[in-house]
Input
Amino acid sequence: MAAPAIEGTGMDTNTIVWIVVAIVAILLIGAVVLAGRKSRNRRRAQEADRIREEVHHDSQRVERQASIVEETEAKARAAQAEAEAKAAEAARLADTASSRRDALTSSQEHLNERRQHADKLDPRVKHNDPNGQNDARHDVRGGATHGATLDATHDARNDNVPQGNYPNSNTEGMRPDVGTR
Output
């Protein structure tokens, strides 16, 4: 026979079984969800560790690139400084060449003036043009006639012969406004 029912409870065994089954099912579902969460968190932690390792390797690569960039920038600054120094040296040399060119021009003009003065004093020189453009000059050594005007290179044989009272025949030493050497 069946157990007498408890009065006032109104629950039968079937309902109690279903409640127990539901509780067990809820616990099982909770355990599966917890296990899934743990597995997912473990995978995420592994992925995060892998990403951190990649970031570490990439940061080392970037640091090496940064040091290469800094080295290249230092080389560029050194090359720029060297270029500026060379430009300054070139400007200084250009100034020196310009002042020497001016001195040479002045010396050549002075020599030409002295030569013209000597030609005016020399009775052997014929003066056809008052400007001296068509002078017929005789070479004192051989009597040969030269062309219309003579420049600073009038006779290659006299290039090394000192002119006037100048002890050295260099062009800067022949300038009247520069002391002799």
Summary: The chain is about 60% helix and 0% strand. The two ends are 150 Å apart (CA to CA). The CA atoms of residues 164 and 180 lie 12 Å apart.
